[in-house]
Design a protein that fits this description.
The chain has a single domain, classed as DD-peptidase/beta-lactamase superfamily (Beta-lactamase, 3-Layer(aba) Sandwich), CATH 3.40.710.10. It has 343 residues and is an alpha+beta fold. It has an 8-stranded antiparallel beta sheet with strand order 3-2-1-13-12-11-10-9, with helices on both faces. It is 31% helix and 18% strand.
Length: 343
């Protein structure tokens, strides 16, 4: 049974300004879930991280085709070398587009077992990177394969810290202009204080287990880590795709490009209608272009430019993620089929 569902839909042209929730925030107390409660948004964080890298590019702090050996500390580079990688051949662009060839650590059976065995462990970025090395040899040469990898995004988190001179939380908040955008319920958990007077974070579940008290460091350093409510997620995607974050309007076009490798998953096949760009997926749905990212716990954030529609939606049981995808498409079908917005 799904404990709760929460969503926000915003579109001025459709005169649509709706947020709602159903279910409970905590199964042990049956406290109702509210539409303003924050959740761990997991890999949706990648969109924020990629945007921050591009902001640093705008500031002249890095170039996308720089090799990562110019921007990472020596001890992390040595972990990569020991694992058979050549940091001089991996660029920031490769990390952004999931074409670095670096194995993922997060979605492996061994890492899941390690997290479940000690839910209070305080993980480090280096331990996670070492986990990816322990999983096996490189997937392939940089640019050759698409391989979704949290490992690449925790390295981007490190690069943000190195090039901004700030901790990751402060860099995201400053470079993405959280205050200017009105993102009052968005923060990087445990790496900065939670905002004052925000609603309690809703409980989220993994195979029925309440992960609310688990130390967030297993998904914190760039691949995930942000906590936000759905109005803030919708607001961020609206601001990003509405070009209200970048200083140079052309930067958004750069973000929405990708590398097309020779091999890889469904996001890389020409004609598939879906492409992983820089921390964001570009796809087609019933003739509409969508820009989106999902998060492990059952979260979606997306924007449809033709409708100026921004959405944040979440389900609080991870194993029901597929149901969230079905619900998203069902809601979109209702909107698209209305007379007012038919193309």
């Amino acid at each position: 049974m799904v404990p709760g569902v929460v969503a926000t839909f915003e579109s001025d042209p459709l005169d649509l300004h709706w947020k709602g929730s159903s279910g409970v925030s905590d199964k042990t107390t049956d406290v109702p879930l509210t539409s303003d409660q924050p959740l761990r948004i997991a890999s949706i964080t990648k969109t924020y991280v990629a945007t921050t890298i591009l902001r640093l590019m705008e500031l002249g702090k890095l170039k996308l085709d720089d090799s990562i050996d110019h921007h990472l500390p020596e001890h992390q580079l040595q972990i990569l070398r020991d694992g058979g990688y050549q940091p001089t051949e991996i660029s920031i662009r490769h990390l952004l587009t999931q074409t670095s060839g670096i194995r993922d650590y997060a979605m492996t059976e061994n890492f899941a077992k390690a997290v479940h065995s000690d839910t209070q462990k305080r993980w480090t970025r280096e331990e996670q990177l070492q986990f990816s090395i322990n999983e096996g040899a490189p997937i392939g040469k940089a640019g050759e394969y698409y391989h979704y990898s949290d490992s690449g995004y925790i390295l981007l988190g490190e690069i943000i810290e190195q090039r901004s001179g700030m901790g990751l939380a402060a860099a995201l908040r400053s470079l993405l202009k959280f205050d200017d955008l009105g993102l009052k319920v968005t923060w990087l958990e445990t790496l900065e204080p939670s905002p004052a007077a925000v609603p309690a974070r809703t409980h989220q579940y993994w195979n029925g287990k309440d992960i609310n008290s688990w130390d967030p460091s297993f998904d914190l350093y760039g691949g995930g880590g942000l906590v936000a409510n759905m109005p803030d997620v919708a607001g961020f995607y609206s601001a990003l795709l509405g070009n209200k974050i970048f200083e140079n309007p052309r930067t958004l076009a750069v973000m929405l490009t990708s590398l097309i490798p020779d091999y890889g998953g469904p996001f890389t096949q020409p004609g598939s209608g879906s492409q992983y760009s820089m921390g964001i997926v570009v796809k087609e749905y019933r003739g509409f272009t969508m820009f989106e990212h999902g998060g492990f716990w059952g979260i979606y954030g997306f924007y449809i430019p033709a409708l100026k529609l921004s959405v944040g939606m979440a389900i609080t049981e991870q194993t029901a993620f597929g149901k969230m995808a079905d619900l998203r498409e069902a809601l979109l079908d209702v909107l698209i089929d209305t007379k007012e917005i038919k193309q």
